Structure formats: C-alpha cells, structure tokens
Amino acid sequence: MDVDMQLVGCDEAELRICDVLEVLQEEEVAEALVVSTPKPIVRIVEQPAPRALRFRYACEGRSAGSLPGVHSTPGARTVPEIEVLGLPDNIRAVALVSCVTRDAPYRPHPHAVVGGRGELGGVACHGGVCMAALNGSRLPLPHLGVQCVKRRDVEIALREREKLRIDPFQTGFDHRKNPSVIDLNSVRLCFQVFLEGEIKGKYTVPLDPVVSDPIYDKKATSELLICKMSDCSASVAGGREIILLCEKVAKDDIEVRFFEQDVEGNVCWEAAGDFTPAHVHRQVAICLRTPRYCRLDVSVPVSAFVQLRRPSDGACSVPLPFELTPLAPVRSSLPWLRRPSLVLSSSTASTSSVTETTSNGTSLCTLVPVVSSPTDIPSGLLTVH
To answer: In what residue span(s) does the RHD domain sit (predicted)?
Structure first.
C-alpha cells in the first residue's frame, strides 16, 4: 500500500498511516508486546458536539469544517479528546478514527473522517479514516470533520473501507448491500488505539475500541418549533390524544414536555407526553397522549405549558400555553337525588311524611316542609338545589 502521509509531532522515526493499516491487513493481529496488567483502557475525555457541524460532500470543494467539543462556548472552544488510562510511559501509541453507525451493533459507516494539520499535532487521513499519534496519554483532535457520501455511493465507500479492514467491532460489511437501512444523517466516531510493538514504528497491540456519542448532520434537523396543536387543553387525569404539527424532528430524538411554573418562574411540575417513534409521522407530526397531572382534586383550570425537547443536546422549542382542566363532576344516576328541593330553616318550617312510589315499584318516604304560604317564609331561608 503506497501511502505517504507523515504525521507531525513524532519525535523519532517517521510515522505513516500505513504503519497501522499494514497491521490491519493481517488475518489476525498479533500482540507482539506484553503490556502491563490491567490492559490500558481508552476513555473519551471530551465528547464531540452533537449538532454543531454540517456534513459536507467532497464535491462541494471546501473544508468539511471541524468538530467542536460538547462543552464549547463562544468564548472558549473545546475539541474532542481521548485518553489512554494505564499507558506505560515508554510505550508510544496511535489512534485510528473512523465513522460507525449510530445504533449498535456499531457497523462501519460510509461517511469519511477528514482532518488537517494543526498546532496540537498532525492528523493523517486516507480511505475515510484518520490517524494521529498520542502525545503522552492524551490526544486532542482539533481538526476532525465528517465528509458525507450520497446514497448511491454507499456501497463504493464501504468496499474501500473493507479493503482496509476498518471494521472495529468485526460486524462485517453485509449492510452495504442494503444502503436504505443506513442513517446518513448521523454517525458516531470510533477510536481504535494501537500500541507500539517490539518492532519500532509498528503498532501491533490493539486496545478495545470506544465510540463517541451520536453526531447529527446540522442541516438534517431544523430548529424545534410547534406550528399547530389539535387541542390546547386536557383533563388533569391525562390520556387525551392530541396531534402536534412541527418543524422536522428526528423520531427517536424528540420529547413533548408539559410543565407548570410557580409565580417566580420555577418549574413546579413536569411530565412527558406518551408516544413512541412510530407515532411521529414523516418527522413533522406527533400523535401523543397527555400526561396525568400531579393532583386530581383541582377546582380551577391549571395554566401550564407544552414544548418540544431534544434529548441529545437538551434543545427546547418556545413553550406554548396549555390548560389542564378539573375533573368533570359526577352526576348521580338516581332521579330523586337530582330533583330540586326546598331547604328551610328548622326554626320556621315543619315537615310531614309523604310516601312515593317510584317507577320500579319501590316505596320511598320523604320528609317535605309544610308551609302555609310563601309569605310565611322569611327572606333568605328559601334555597333551591
């Protein structure tokens, strides 16, 4: 394999990406070096930001951009970074970075990892993967980007990856035959670290690979926004079916949040609407059932809010008002409990017994007031129920 991409930052012999790729060409990778026990472990110190980068095609003729870290702010930029715990001081290591699918089992993804040189160390890229040398036990990656491929080019990209044997979890490449099952709007970064073996410059001791949190194409999902709701109120008992129309959302990365605030603006109650990814229609409509309120004995409507929330990055839409109404009063099915009656003060009214037969033949004894005339009832003592 004729690849001559030198890595910047290596103290001694020239290090090329083929030094690792040659190892992957072997049917079995031999661990030529006995490392200390326990085996070093790869850990992601700073995750990549999930929605900060637009995936770009190679034909766009411009840089794919660089992934910031998840904790980046306008005033302080961070970058993805890994660390090898338990790495002996005298052992050199390199990291191979590739794209894998978002969902397990993590299969090779057709999108390519691309990078460039920077002050924090060099990155060599070839065939959709990048390699960088660790400076000590940590490796920041300030210039990594994701270059996407079109659906029709998925099989070609995966065949190239297969030739290089870039298959971190040994899942195979059968999925290239069915490109429609591959989500082209999301990837994970997979970090494979190799330690230098007995032969200087040959990295023959692989460590267990690790994957990042999902990274989503920024252009694939819009800003969260509720456009219209079928209903703006529901009972405190919950369970009412409503439909939200919204801007495009990812069906497995969206929640509908109901919440109430106190007079100071603090959230005093919140719950999620009940729905599954199958209830998200074409990414723009959500059919859900309202949640149960924390109290059912309210006597007046509760003013609450509803909004969309994206779990992957915590982004929320502008909340809209939503009213939680009290439970409807239960009316008795017994007719005699629903008839208006006179309630009189015991000091001014006397009663007599009247026997009444209902429609089902039951005899009832009712006490009714005896009043000589309406004028005999003092003002304020007559009440109709």
So the answer is: 37-222
Domain span at residue 314 reads: 226-325
Clarify whether residues 72 and 211 are in a common domain.
Answer: yes
Compute how many other C-beta atoms are within 10 angstroms of the C-beta atom of residue 269: 16
Q: Pull the structure tokens for residue 63.
A: 């840089």
Successive 10-residue mean pLDDT values, the chain, 385 residues: 36 51 54 60 96 87 81 93 94 95 96 68 81 92 92 95 95 94 94 92 92 89 88 96 94 94 94 96 96 95 96 87 89 56 46 50 50 49 45
Closest CA to 48 of 164, 172, 216: 216
CA distance 158 to 357: 87
Which one, of 230, 247, 261, lies nearest residue 308 by Cα?
Answer: 247
377 with 310, same domain: the answer is: no
Q: How far is the CA of 219 from the CAs of 6, 49, 108, 114, 215, in angstroms? A: 33, 14, 22, 19, 12
